[in-house]
Amino acid sequence: MDDSIRHIEKPDLDEMERSEEIEKNTAPFTPQDEKKLVRKLDFWIIPLMMVTYFLQSYDKGIMSAATQFGFETDLNLEYVVGYEADGTAETNSSRYSNASMIFYVGYLIGTYPMMYLAQHFPVSRVIAVAVFIWGIILMSTAGCKNYAGIMVVRLFLGMFESAVAPTFTVLITFWWTREEQALRTGLWYCCVGLATTIGPFLNYALGQINGPLRTWEPMFLVLGGVTTAWAVVLFFLLPDGPYTTKGLNEFERQIAISRLERNQAGTITREFDRAQFFETFRDFKTYSCFLIILLTGVPSGAIGTFGTIVINGFGYDHFDSLALTSPIGALTALSILIVGYVTRKFSGTRYLCIIVCALISIAGTLICWFGPRDNKALLFAGIFLIAVQVASGGIAVSLAASNIAGHTKKATTSASTFVGYCIGNIIGPLIFGASPGPIYRSGFIGSFVCLCGVVVTGAITWIYLRWENARRDKRCRPASEYQHQHSIDENLTDLQNEEFRYVL
């Protein structure tokens, strides 16, 4: 890219300040200095990301909990279509699944525009404004009176919530090395499980509020208010890249920039690189991450939308159905953290963890598919195991950042993978809603097929990237022998940079 049109995100300095910066940039730093900086980043940025993603996951999933307080009945989203031989009612949930699906249509619409805004404006400002707006939208859900109203609200909620996960994936690469990224991505990504763990008890408490409002309305009003307040916190505390943040002294900034260069992942720039954009769609890795996240999104979206309804259909009452989603969320969070730790501790295990987690969840789909309907504990165990596959999607999110270099390419890849996330979460509720409850047989069959696809895609990608690393070692020389010949300001992609090696 021509230097004359590249804008690097560095602040302007006068000559004296520039000389001082050069002097400080040549000062050595020790491993202890680096560890101290990493610890500071972990306790500063990660909690902000975790709370934000917790709210995003909680806010988008609150509709499922509201069904236990008459939400789908009040808005005419579910109705009886017949009865089984034993008198059990068969219900049509297509409107409810559509209300869930439309959120991800909005997410799909908003993903690329939000990534475009995040590259041209400070990331912290884009995220804070988006969080503020979706908080207001969430509160407006309490005013919905019919099916059309909830469809419009959920569409716009998805559009603004799309600002968070793709930008977080890129933001992680500004601050942590490729070896560190999987665990840090896991820390904020596991909050989807934490929201499911804590949410049922908060939802039940909110559902007990007596007053002139419908039982489920306080859920949306309170959570929307909390979200808008959190947006203000993000506006002032969430940093952008190491070049511009005021939260670092100059010595810490030097270490952060040095770590960024060590990543061989390109610089931080606000200029859109057309060549990198088109290279994204010629790269096998883009489609691999896209497919893994799409395929894991099918069972995730289905269980996230229909979880309480499915558990209720196993024979549990409304409160138990709500409460039993809590251990499912805990397992989700725990599995993400465990694989994050394993991949940090043992190199070359990311794709292996993707495959293992998918295999565990395949067992869960088979239990729900073939298990006896009168054994509700066994059926619940199947749902419990299906939750593990969320960790496979979390690893794929980290790989979309760790195995991609070049700022525009990295941002485009991140957005593309979350397009897969949207499509998977659209398909999941649809296939569950396509077959009558409480069995939802087609939903479990579809989830089984998708998870088999995750295993195949993960195995093929691992073989390909292992071969590519060996080819680069043979054609050039092992990455360990390089002395970082390329400058960070070159902003090379992983396909252009012969020093780049893919993490497995």
From TrEMBL:
<dbReference type="Pfam" id="PF07690">
    <property type="entry name" value="MFS_1"/>
</dbReference>
<keyword id="KW-0812">Transmembrane</keyword>
<feature type="transmembrane region" description="Helical">
    <location>
        <begin position="218"/>
        <end position="238"/>
    </location>
</feature>
<feature type="transmembrane region" description="Helical">
    <location>
        <begin position="155"/>
        <end position="175"/>
    </location>
</feature>
<feature type="transmembrane region" description="Helical">
    <location>
        <begin position="290"/>
        <end position="316"/>
    </location>
</feature>
<feature type="transmembrane region" description="Helical">
    <location>
        <begin position="378"/>
        <end position="401"/>
    </location>
</feature>
<dbReference type="GO" id="GO:0022857">
    <property type="term" value="F:transmembrane transporter activity"/>
</dbReference>
<keyword id="KW-0813">Transport</keyword>
<feature type="transmembrane region" description="Helical">
    <location>
        <begin position="125"/>
        <end position="143"/>
    </location>
</feature>
<feature type="transmembrane region" description="Helical">
    <location>
        <begin position="351"/>
        <end position="372"/>
    </location>
</feature>
<dbReference type="InterPro" id="IPR020846">
    <property type="entry name" value="MFS_dom"/>
</dbReference>
<dbReference type="InterPro" id="IPR036259">
    <property type="entry name" value="MFS_trans_sf"/>
</dbReference>
<feature type="transmembrane region" description="Helical">
    <location>
        <begin position="444"/>
        <end position="465"/>
    </location>
</feature>
<feature type="region of interest" description="Disordered">
    <location>
        <begin position="1"/>
        <end position="25"/>
    </location>
</feature>
<keyword id="KW-1133">Transmembrane helix</keyword>
<feature type="domain" description="Major facilitator superfamily (MFS) profile">
    <location>
        <begin position="45"/>
        <end position="470"/>
    </location>
</feature>
<feature type="compositionally biased region" description="Basic and acidic residues">
    <location>
        <begin position="1"/>
        <end position="13"/>
    </location>
</feature>
<protein>
    <recommendedName>
        <fullName>Major facilitator superfamily (MFS) profile domain-containing protein</fullName>
    </recommendedName>
</protein>
<keyword id="KW-0472">Membrane</keyword>
<feature type="transmembrane region" description="Helical">
    <location>
        <begin position="322"/>
        <end position="342"/>
    </location>
</feature>
<dbReference type="GO" id="GO:0016020">
    <property type="term" value="C:membrane"/>
</dbReference>
<feature type="transmembrane region" description="Helical">
    <location>
        <begin position="187"/>
        <end position="206"/>
    </location>
</feature>
<dbReference type="InterPro" id="IPR011701">
    <property type="entry name" value="MFS"/>
</dbReference>
<feature type="transmembrane region" description="Helical">
    <location>
        <begin position="413"/>
        <end position="432"/>
    </location>
</feature>
